[in-house]
Amino acid sequence: MNALPLPVALADVLARGDVWRGDTLASLAEAAIPSGHPELDAELPGGGWPRGTLTELLVGRSGVGEMSLLLPALSRLSQAGGWLALVAPPWLPHAPAWAAAGIALERLVIVRAGKDTAWSIEQLLACGGFAGVLGWPGDGVDAKTLRRLQVAAEGRSTLACLWRSMAAADTPSPAPLRVALANGDDALNIRILKRRGRPASRPLELPYSSSIPRPGRRLRAVAGPVLSRIADRGLAAAPAA
Q1: Ranges assigned E (strand) in the chain
Q2: At the N or C end, where does the chain have fewer CB atoms within 10 A?
Q3: Dihedral angle of Cα 28, 30, 35, 41, to the nearest 10 degrees
Q4: What is the mean pLDDT of residues 152-173?
Q5: pLDDT band for position 5 (50/70/90)?
Q6: Taking a C-beta distance cutoff of 8 angstroms, is the pair 177, 31 a contact?
Q7: Which residues contact 222 (CB under 8 A, 6 or more apart)?
Q8: How many domains does the chain have?
Q9: Are 86 and 109 in contact (CB under 8 A)?
Q10: Residue closest to 53 by CA, chosen among 24, 26, 91
Q11: Quick check: is 216 in a domain?
């Protein structure tokens, strides 16, 4: 006769990071990267941006401080020796600003993927060789593709972020974390639309600072306004310069 499985205590089940009560947040501290903003970390499961899962950041338009919000976490990954990839960004990084933020430019890869953006993101996530993968899949990404990206990210130590239009906010997504960003007069407005655990009760406002520049300074500080001619030479991938 096969031995019956031993009973598992409820406390042991709840001690797992991937199990949580409905009125609490999931806790995966070992898989989280501090955002650099304590008030935001308090609202993110695990106390920071999650690794090994898909995060969606929704914006009405680019240039609302979205990249500045991620730079502290990207800097941590870069300073630890990790490689970072930007897939189909709408601009080239402004190298001096990224270097000043602590990004090692020699380990920053830019991928011009064209129609293969989602496929490129999936391959970079699945290879496990990147500490951070940020992708701009465009408006045509469907639920099936998003599920593939989530599967590719699962179990990896990668910070996996997709930048999508605010128009996708009402469309279901398999991403466990979805955050909407908008610029206000004096602060960056953040709404957590979806997270593992209880729903967020209120939006957050992060005052503009050196880490989140005010509108009007953002493109000069973080990125060029458009892709440069260097990016149009047909290279599939190239390190930032």
Answers
A1: 32-33, 49-50, 53-59, 84-87, 108-111, 132-135, 159-165, 177-183, 187-194, 204-207, 237-239
A2: N
A3: 40
A4: 93
A5: low
A6: no
A7: 67, 68, 71, 93, 94, 97, 98, 213
A8: 1
A9: yes
A10: 26
A11: yes
Q: Which residues contact 10 (CB under 8 A, 6 or more apart)?
A: none
Would you give the distance in Å from CA 155 to the centre of its chain? Answer: 15
- In which band, very low, low, confident or very high, does the pLDDT at 26 lie, cut at 50, 70 and 90? low
Task: Assess if residue 109 is contained within a domain.
Answer: yes
Q: Give φ, ψ of 73 to 5 degrees.
A: -70, -40
**What are the CA-CA distances from residue 132 to residues 9, 53, 168, 174, 235 (Å)?**
36, 11, 23, 19, 21
Q: Decide if 130 is inside a domain.
A: yes
Tokens found for residue 10: 């409820």
Domain membership of residue 35 (yes or no) is no
| Residues 98-131: b if buried by 16+ CB within 10 A, e if exposed | beebebbeebbbbbbbeeebbebbbebbeeeebb
Q: Write out the residue range of the structural domain in which residue 87 sits.
A: 40-115+125-239
Pairing state of beta strands 53-59 and 159-165? parallel
Look at the block and give the residue holding tokens 């089940």: 13
Whether the pLDDT of residue 92 is over 80: the answer is yes
- pTM of the entire structure? 0.78
